[in-house]
Write a structure and sequence with these properties.
The chain is of the alpha+beta class and 337 residues long. The protein is 28% helix and 19% strand. The chain has a single domain, classed as B-lactam Antibiotic, Isopenicillin N Synthase, Chain (Jelly Rolls). Bound molecules: the ligand C=C1C[C@]23C[C@@]1(O)CC[C@H]2[C@@]12CCC[C@@](C)(C(=O)O1)[C@H]2[C@@H]3C(=O)O, 2-oxoglutaric acid and fe (ii) ion. One of its GO terms (molecular function) is metal ion binding. Its EC number is 1.14.11.15.
């Protein structure tokens, strides 16, 4: 198979605004019931200002791989500005959005999720991926009117980075990562990316899939989901559990890099997105983690057997980009007994 982002760019895009019934290309055989179970619990809520926030985050990551975060310090007004700009982008006519299409082999720009080629059917979703300034792509859509979009997206990433650093410091302390191995946290080296997601209303939501089940590659993801439900996480023994939007709260997901660095104490969370007949849905995901050249490995504790081999972030991302389902198992160290 060609490189994952080349494959994603080669898919024929759908103009959702002109579709009145679900095309076969987007009809999934059993989108809503991969295990027959449907969970009833809900992910923990953590108040970042609580003196026990770190412990609460540890417990949430161990048992759910996700939590809702309150008192996070991101101004609601900034989130609203991102929402205004995302609406401005995704409600454009299809031919305008296609001008900013992700080019083959690259990550940033407009298009389907990068994981799309690994699924037989297309998702009811459009995305726009940003790393740093989105100006190259924004200029193609709005030649004379891109400055505000860029300013807001850059400001949002800046604020998200600060929050991600704070949460990462707590998590890596719990994991026992040595200071010299986390110098990248808070430096300009760390990697961050912002994904704007849009799920249009869907004529047959029961047969469609917003975003197919996946784990995020990052160390952690900070997600804002606007008012509409749709996000579900897989909880062992319970099935798919909806993550309802809490006004003002952000959802934090453990990603694969944390899975490795915590020796699977904080497993990355499998999640997916369902769609709605009448309501569109927006979400903004900020992915945070160590720089590409950083070597990651489980912490070296006495008596603890490392379950994963050491490798660079870049090596892991390449493995994941070629085989998302088997990436973690392919770096698992075989047990000797
Ligand atoms: C930083 C990144 C995470 C992501 C790959 C990327 O390089 C940029 C896009 C991200 C995204 C967003 C939608 C879901 C996802 C699985 C995908 O297809 O593209 C994630 C990627 C990921 O976590 O691997
Ligand atoms: O839309 C959502 O709630 C989830 C988005 C997501 O999983 C992602 O961008 O990786
Ligand atoms: Fe995700």
């Amino acid at each position: 198979m060609a490189n994952i982002s080349e494959e994603a760019a080669n898919r024929i895009p759908l103009d959702f605004s002109s579709v009145k019934s679900l095309p076969d290309s987007h009809a999934w055989p059993h989108p809503g019931c991969s295990d027959g179970l449907s969970g009833s619990g809900s992910i923990p809520v953590v108040d970042l200002m609580d003196p026990n926030a770190m412990e609460a985050i540890g417990l949430a990551c161990e048992s759910w791989g996700a939590f809702q975060l309150n008192n996070h310090g991101i101004p609601l007004s900034l989130i609203e500005q991102v929402e205004v700009q995302a609406t401005r982008l995704f409600t454009l006519p299809a031919h305008r959005k296609f001008k900013a299409q992700r080019s083959p082999g690259s990550i940033t720009g407009y298009g389907p999720a990068l994981i799309s080629p690994f699924f037989p059917k297309s998702m009811w979703h459009e995305g726009f991926t940003i790393i740093g300034s989105p100006s190259d792509h924004a200029k193609r859509i709005w030649p004379y009117d891109h400055a505000r979009f860029c300013e807001i997206m850059e400001n949002y990433q800046k604020q998200m980075k600060k929050l991600a650093e704070e949460v990462t410091r707590m998590i890596l302390k719990l994991v026992g990562v040595r200071d010299e191995e986390k110098e990248w946290v808070g430096s300009s080296e760390s990697s961050g990316a912002l994904q704007l997601n849009w799920y249009p209303p869907c004529p047959e939501p029961e047969r469609a899939m917003g975003l197919a089940p996946h784990t995020d590659t990052s160390l952690l993801t900070i997600l804002y989901q606007a008012q509409t439900s749709g996000l579900e996480i897989l909880k062992q023994g319970e099935g798919w559990v909806p993550v309802r939007p809490h006004p003002g709260a952000l959802v934090v997901h453990a990603g694969d890099l944390l899975h490795v660095m915590s020796n699977a104490r904080f497993p990355s969370v499998l999640h997916r997105v369902t769609v709605n007949r009448t309501r569109q849905r927006y979400s903004f995901a900020y992915f945070y983690g160590p720089p590409q050249h950083c070597v990651i490995s489980p912490p070296a504790f006495q008596n603890s057997v490392p379950r994963f081999r050491a490798l660079t972030v870049k090596e892991y991302m390449d493995i994941k980009a070629n085989n998302p389902d088997l990436a973690l198992s392919s770096i698992t160290i075989a047990s000797t007994h």
